[in-house]
Amino acid sequence: MPFQPRVAILVPAPDYYENWHPAFTRKAAALSGAGLVVEQRVWTDPGDLSGYDLILPLFAWGYQRDVAAWYALLDRLETEALPVANPVPVLRWNSDKAYLGELGAKGVAVVPTVEVAALDDSSLAAARLQLGAEEVVIKPAISGGADGTHRIAAGDAIPADALGQRRLVQPLMPGILTEGEFSLFFFAGQLSHAIVKRPASGDFRVQEQFGGRETVWEASDAARALAAAALAAAPASPDYARVDMVGDAAGKLHIMELELIEPSLFLHHAPDKGAAFGTAVCAAI
How many other CB atoms are found less than 10 A from the CB of residue 269? Predict the structure, then answer.
């Protein structure tokens, strides 16, 4: 019988509130189709991981709610020299959205971002002035699933969960309301597919749990070039990546986020239904 590598996909605890199982089924099917044996391990308590040929944090959902446990896991994976995709330095770098500042410093067009150590009325006013925007979006630097993300118009009070906390302040990008947010998916550095995600009427969040919806999108040359520039700035070449971007008032695209840890990959929109994803993971072993 031919050798079949074993891969562990890190998943949430059984009581996790979001339904991650349909997306898991799609990813697991792509990996099984590539000849891999797929097993689940709860990321907060994964036990012995030494017998796996590769560990994938593809469903380490909720890490933003237990940051200490997440970083402890990364430290452990690194200390034990366990095989991980994406590599631990990439995961650690991608965990904190301060990386947006690094991308901007390297000439990559990112959504303008001001980091505030302890958000209050004064620091928010200063951030608005620096950004030249009255209507802004605030979010935690370590976040996921739009947790703690708020749209704040002029005169709005700072939400209680953000007051006094470290936050990133960004202008509300007009493109999110008119065109939507674009996502490009790369496996082993090659573009697989792209989608556009649009928020529900009256909202600005594109996540499915808030009524967002997605459709297939033919990535423009500008989007491809921007995504390539952003990925080239990562600490190492990621085996899988989702690059989210949005347009400004003139339609110029800016990086919203790099998803290199536990992204939804929307494999049902990939022409090959995830075969390239499976091939990339095999190559990482």
Answer: 18
Model confidence at 199, in pLDDT bands (50, 70, 90)? low
Give the pTM.
Answer: 0.92
Domains, the chain, ordered by start: 6-95 (3.40.50), 99-110+175-267 (3.30.470.20), 114-172 (3.30.1490)
Cβ atoms of 172 and 137 closer than 8 Å: yes
User: ∠122-128-248 over CA atoms, to 5°?
Assistant: 160
Average pLDDT over residues 77-81: 97
CA-CA-CA-CA torsion sign (30, 36, 38, 44): negative
**3 state SS for the chain:** CCCCCEEEEEECCCCCCCCCHHHHHHHHHHHHHCCCEEEEEECCCCCCCCCCCEEECCCCCCHHHCHHHHHHHHHHHHHCCCCECCCHHHHHHHHCCCHHHHHHHCCCCECCCEEECCCCHHHHHHHHHHHCCCCEEEECCCCCCCCCCEEECCCCCCCCCCCCCCEEEEECCHHHHHCCEEEEEEECCEEEEEEEEECCCCCCCCCHHHCCEEEECCCCHHHHHHHHHHHHCCCCCCCEEEEEEEECCCCCEEEEEEECCCCCCCHHHCCCCCHHHHHHHHHHC
